[in-house]
């Protein structure tokens, strides 16, 4: 499906697929066949989710936000250490089951799973390069309902492997809980990564941890909460809910931990649509990224080609010259092919429009025809000779007018056309005109006389038909004579134009050779674009959940009546850290339009 050399198109290979489950399995196979093993495994992950219906709740945030502590509290056990597990995978999935840890190691296509006590997890993971995934199991009752928790490294990690591991695992997340601590809500890393999560179609829930650090006398909680909202709005982030929690002081008046727990249970209870949407949306994102992966080498090759030519402008100039040359070739070929037809059309129009027998000439024709009628006599004595003389006089007068009409309305223009044809062929114009003049039909008196039909009837009735027949025959004779005389000139002109077209084709061929690499790359791009369209169309045909805003699939938050902060702080006041500027300032400093991605942040 996605192999450029494949004979079948993506549409053909997915024609028999009628369910999302079949689409996931088929697409995973196709990814593997094209060498995209990572995305093939990710697609199989989604297939497993689709089949077992597990909802995965991912927890993201920077290192000190307290993600692991939140997960431990949700599970009611110390499963995760406060420091990261020493493995390049560094993404941990918590599932329901007897308390243990499982380590998945991979060697090429071969994967193995080792079960170890949780207490030995850190030691086992020292050799992190071979560890692909870490699974922890705990018998938390609400996980038994078909939920799993995903703990990711800090988004501000300096280790690229941590970021890559997070991004590689996020396709499994159905809902993302973004955890920040009270003093770092304004972190650009938070907003940039959360924006990528939202753009990937993941429902987003915001958790502000360590709310026990809040000091009402420094900033009213309502003001702080509004500042958080404005900071998120500035980055076009619209979390489905924002929770303020404290794991250090469970009884803190602003602590919404119980509300958060209840809300998460509701999500698990209503998980079916979320899981289906999450799998379908993630599958589409994988398909798009797979196509992007296949397009990237083409873009790199084109960039190298353009640099070899001297840059983008030089490449554009080359293509413009090639396009102009192609246009010149087409014009020359068209002109060569149309030499004869254009001449014939011009001659046909000339003969059709020529007024060979005007009214005065028709009157002379009628006078001559009257002289041809039986009973026509001139004088009484010697009437036979006089009659014949009058008949010949009338014919001569008619013939002179006829010949003048032919000369003025046809022959002058025909000779001009022959001169032009000879000139275009590079031949002697005067000679061509003289030969044409000699080749024209006489169309004289005898020709006019023999054209009269015996017994034609009264001249008044026959004259128009006679003149029309004369005109048609004259046009036919002239046309044949002109075309015969013009053919050598037209052939020579056609040969000259064909030579010019051949020279232009040769020049265009030289430019085409320079553009061959670009054309090859363009053909690959067109093939991949067709594959992309077919792949997404097949996905569209089998998806079951349509949602413009995936957060509408989440249940509503049921909050108890807000507990007000006491007039005085319950603990000793802490001076804010020197780097703390507060969410209000962060909102002011956030970009007005689309946010600038943070350094080191990467697309999911």
TrEMBL record:
<dbReference type="GO" id="GO:0005525">
    <property type="term" value="F:GTP binding"/>
</dbReference>
<feature type="compositionally biased region" description="Low complexity">
    <location>
        <begin position="581"/>
        <end position="604"/>
    </location>
</feature>
<dbReference type="InterPro" id="IPR027094">
    <property type="entry name" value="Mitofusin_fam"/>
</dbReference>
<keyword id="KW-0175">Coiled coil</keyword>
<keyword id="KW-0378">Hydrolase</keyword>
<feature type="coiled-coil region">
    <location>
        <begin position="494"/>
        <end position="521"/>
    </location>
</feature>
<protein>
    <submittedName>
        <fullName>Dynamin</fullName>
    </submittedName>
</protein>
<dbReference type="GO" id="GO:0003924">
    <property type="term" value="F:GTPase activity"/>
</dbReference>
<dbReference type="InterPro" id="IPR027417">
    <property type="entry name" value="P-loop_NTPase"/>
</dbReference>
<dbReference type="GO" id="GO:0016020">
    <property type="term" value="C:membrane"/>
</dbReference>
<keyword id="KW-0472">Membrane</keyword>
<feature type="domain" description="Dynamin N-terminal">
    <location>
        <begin position="57"/>
        <end position="210"/>
    </location>
</feature>
<feature type="region of interest" description="Disordered">
    <location>
        <begin position="550"/>
        <end position="604"/>
    </location>
</feature>
<dbReference type="InterPro" id="IPR045063">
    <property type="entry name" value="Dynamin_N"/>
</dbReference>
<dbReference type="Pfam" id="PF00350">
    <property type="entry name" value="Dynamin_N"/>
</dbReference>
<keyword id="KW-0342">GTP-binding</keyword>
<keyword id="KW-0547">Nucleotide-binding</keyword>
